[in-house]
Amino acid sequence: MKKKRVIVKIGSSSLTDEKGALSEQKLFDHVEALAYLKQLGHEVILISSGAVAAGFGSLGYASRPKTTAGKQAAAAVGQGLLMQGYISVFRQFGIVTGQILLTREDFYSRERFHNLFSTISKLLERGVLPIINENDSVSIEELTFGDNDMLSALVSGFLHADALIILTDINGLYDRNPKTNKDAKKYSFLAEITDDLIEKAGGSSSSVGTGGMKSKLLAAQKALSFGVSVFVGTGEGKEKLRDILEGKGNGTYIGAPFQPHMQMRKQWIAYHAHVAGKIEIDGGAENALLHKGKSLLPAGVTNIFGTFQALDVVEVVNQKGTVIGRGQIYYSSADLEKVKGWASDQAKSYSIHQRPEVIHRDNWVPLRKESFVK
Ligand SMILES: Nc1ncnc2c1ncn2[C@@H]1O[C@H](COP(=O)(O)OP(=O)(O)O)[C@@H](O)[C@H]1O
Ligand SMILES: N[C@@H](CCC(=O)OP(=O)(O)O)C(=O)O
């Protein structure tokens, strides 16, 4: 994969335990994934929240303080604890980190803006991983970023990042807050952020996070205006960030896909190729295609319409008959009729490539502008 400049934003809710204190285990999980991304040759810049969450316990607060002075005092204690955690874990991976604390004024002044750019460029040139947070203890309330979502969008724009990954405690954006509406539906892809979406998104329902999905959408809108694509979601383990970059993340992709080299083929599939037929798939396959970044397997195919050859482009519909995307198919309609519902091992000898996939994920394009997943 081409080397990318990636901004990763980690929210307080993804760094803390159920009591709201900094979780060493969660911090380790993030660092391992960040280190892996760096080992793969990508440039990584971390925007980390968590100073207030890491500090309030030491000040004797039972929960995150509400007053500005309380939050600023907690951040003064917590920012050091947060960095102590990052420094010691990144060291285990042989990575040096640099702390940068920003206020909104740093973006207003051209001179500061320029200095900041030079500093971050030098850190990246020397192989250092910059860790950025708002300078909470000195920010004046009216001028704070409020949460780090907008800060991460501004940084992604001015560093001309290839991708902004916003990690949070929920696996993407839903049409309503899923913590209070159990029927909420998830978006797997959004081409743009409309005002209507922003209006419907809710605030934070956790005790440590700030801003909720609304602030993430505003940030995503800003990042898109700079030409930076965004992912909002979650993940676990060393490979989570690599997977997100490869389009397999558990969350919502906003803007263009993260892999531009696939765009030509996918553009052809989506807009130019003749559609030779239609196949219907079950709910599990729909979820795998739209949400999990997986290929379509024979087991998920329920019906075939029209006559097509292997390597033709077909439309894919769900059980309600809604077109959810298009893909280049590895089976002819006659062969697919035989193997639909079969296990991969039995079916694959009918495929043109002797492979089980009906539509490989590299040849699949979701077509609805806002693709929903239950
Ligand atoms: N439409 C929505 N889709 C997803 N999450 C939502 C939505 N509206 C509100 N939320 C809430 O936003 C929370 C994430 O935001 P926040 O608590 O600020 O996290 P972070 O600390 O990562 O910034 C979720 O836990 C969820 O409760
Ligand atoms: N700068 C603050 C971030 C405030 C905050 O809660 O942000 P977030 O968790 O990203 O919604 C901190 O470090 O605690």
Automatic annotation (TrEMBL):
Protein name, UniProt field: Glutamate 5-kinase
Catalytic activity: L-glutamate + ATP = L-glutamyl 5-phosphate + ADP
NCBIfam families documented for this protein: proB (TIGR01027)
Organism name: Thermolongibacillus altinsuensis
Pfam families the record matches: AA_kinase (PF00696), PUA (PF01472)
Keyword entries, A-Z: Amino-acid biosynthesis, ATP-binding, Cytoplasm, Kinase, Nucleotide-binding, Proline biosynthesis, Transferase
Record InterPro entries: AceGlu_kinase-like_sf (IPR036393), Asp/Glu/Uridylate_kinase (IPR001048), G5K_ProB (IPR041739), Glu/AcGlu_kinase (IPR001057), Glu_5kinase (IPR011529), Glu_5kinase/COase_Synthase (IPR005715), Glutamate_5-kinase_CS (IPR019797), PUA (IPR002478)
GO MF annotation terms: ATP binding; glutamate 5-kinase activity; RNA binding
Family statement drawn from the similarity comment of this UniProt entry: Belongs to the glutamate 5-kinase family.
SMART domains hit by this protein: PUA
A Gene Ontology term for the protein's cellular component: cytosol
UniProt-annotated binding residues for ATP: K9, T168, D169, T210, G211, G212, M213, K214, S215, K216
Residues involved in substrate binding: S49, D136, N148
